[in-house]
Amino acid sequence: MIGVKERIENLRLQIKYHNEKYYDMDQPEIEDFEYDVLVNELKTLEALHPEFKELDSPTQQVGGTVKRELRKVRHDVPVISLQDVFSKEDVYAFVDKVKYQIPNPKFVVEMKIDGLSVMLRYREGKLAEGITRGNGEVGESVYENLLEIESIPKIIPTDSPYVEVRGEVYMSNDTFEMVRQRQEERGGKTYKTPRNLAAGSLRQLDPKIVRERKLDIFVFNLEVSENKDFSSHAESLRWLSSLGLSVIPDYKICSTADEIWECISIIGEERWKLPFGIDGAVVKVDNLEDRRELGSTSKVPRWAIAFKYPPEQKETVVEDIKIQIGRTGRLAPLALLTPVKLAGTTVSRASLHNQDYIDSKDIRIGDTVVIQKAGDIIPEVIRSIPEKRPVDAIKYIIPSTCPICNSPTVRDENGADVRCGGELCLAQLIRGITYFVSKDAMDIEGFGPSSVESLMSEEYIKSIADIYHLREYRNELIEKGIVGREKSVDNLLNAIDKSKENDLSQLITGFGIKNVGKQTARALTSSFADIDEISNATLDQLIDLPDFGMTVASSVLNFFSLDSTKVLINKLKEAGVNTKSKLQEDNIDNRFAGKTFVITGTLPNLKRDEAARLIQMHGGKVSGSVSKKTSYVLAGEEAGGKLTKAEELSVKIIDEQEFNNMLL
């Protein structure tokens, strides 16, 4: 009995954690199917052991919490979830249960759109409010953001004084790919699925972001319509459509369990061809009076279910396992697969992560394996099928030497990753150049790790200086498509040209000198006029600088004494890269001198590194943690634990607007 109680408590903790990641942070860590397995196990154990039932169990609650930044709004009608089912038998059992109470019922089968549920409120025909589900009783107002969704009419032609509808805000697959690529180029937060990005966008505090990301909506239920009655769900959907609302498409009316299962099967077969994501099919009793008779439990209606499709799985063969060298020198094993159509796309490769992963699943070259897409996006190997294994298959071991430079490999201490130990390995050079172009250093927009690796592999870049000669190869780059087509190439070349005007502190940071970070680079460029003065600085001059000691000073001296550094500096000067300081003490504005900032959350307009750079340019320091020594916490959306810590310590909290005012 003690084991059961511990399992129940463990399941509750896991589910609460994943609820927060999914509903509140829009960053799920597990697939819906895995989450549903946890929830169903908890429900079963609680039903078998009612003595362990608790009111705060996630099985007794709906969805997520309400975000602190958005206005709270109480729902007129409680927003409850649907009962999830996972098999044909479950669907037939639901139909039989309904038919036991209702003679000759009709059912509506709909696609379950994978997005964020919202309630739209119309007063006298005008859109007056928009609310997320929240915890089912209280949601958060996203009205200003919903105004930016083109498919939501702001006025509907109705005499009903009050109408409330429920819909699902989503992002199309094409828009997701476009926004995801733009986010990667900007170095912004990335999302794994359209649902996560749609939910994250809708809950932004800046409506402009919603407009840019082209969200859409399907309305799937009429909640309230004052002075207007309907007899069926289908009738209400037709009315909503006549008002200009985008209602759930292709719904079907069925009479039997066989018809319902056929509709569910068709949706399952066609879902990969849809321009938007779905995560199941919904079966609802059509007649509204029948719904009232069937009623609801405290958590789910008895007149509807949601069928959840399991992740599509396919068998294929591991034709080979190759090693890729990541930008940090990590040896990443990659399975080359016999191409197979899976979840709407052709899959021919899947990451095997590390040696522990390969060993735990006993994956060998020649093996027949089962694959699926994590979150319907990322291919992964689920298991091997030993009974189909060739007799000569042998266990795969990640090599003990780097396949690029033949240096010995080293396994991470207390970790599973294996890395190249060679200092001159291509992978190590890639890492250095990747850091140089990153937002922490020269901030060359659109110059991500994959572009660096591709350009180095094709030998267009061998050192930092070569970056500034890429324009000479514009036509070749466009023709080969190494970093994209014409627009992508021109954007990258323009960003490289723009970086030539950066402050010297960014260049020094980008060199990746041992023990020299952004703060140290700023101290150097605040005290010396240009890179030549820094190169000729003495030990005594360096030790006298703020936050410098013997270790840092020695690192700077050693770097600038190298012949290779002198050659690099000359090449950068010839290429037109700025080597003069814009931060000399005579000209610097030190209004933040002696102040320490912590930046947390997503700011409406500034990237966090941009805010950090502004603070440092004005004499302030940026810390990663909140303490009694913190002067200000600059907080954006999803600020999390640092904001809580600041409140506990009575540290002043400011938003981006207040920060901008401090810079005026």
UniProtKB/TrEMBL annotation:
EC number: 6.5.1.2
SMART domains noted in UniProt: BRCT, HhH1, LIGANc
Protein name per Swiss-Prot or TrEMBL: DNA ligase
Gene that this sequence comes from: ligA
InterPro entries: BRCT_dom (IPR001357), BRCT_dom_sf (IPR036420), DisA/LigA_HHH (IPR041663), DNA_ligase (IPR001679), DNAligase_adenylation (IPR013839), DNAligase_N (IPR013840), Hlx-hairpin-Hlx_DNA-bd_motif (IPR003583), NA-bd_OB-fold (IPR012340)
Organism domain of life: Bacteria
MF terms (GO), sorted A to Z: DNA ligase (NAD+) activity
Catalysis performed (reactions): NAD(+) + (deoxyribonucleotide)n-3'-hydroxyl + 5'-phospho-(deoxyribonucleotide)m = (deoxyribonucleotide)n+m + AMP + beta-nicotinamide D-nucleotide
Biological function: DNA ligase that catalyzes the formation of phosphodiester linkages between 5'-phosphoryl and 3'-hydroxyl groups in double-stranded DNA using NAD as a coenzyme and as the energy source for the reaction. It is essential for DNA replication and repair of damaged DNA.
KW ATP-binding (keyword) present: no
Family indicated by similarity: Belongs to the NAD-dependent DNA ligase family. LigA subfamily.
HAMAP family xref list: DNA_ligase_A
CC cofactor: Mg(2+); Mn(2+)
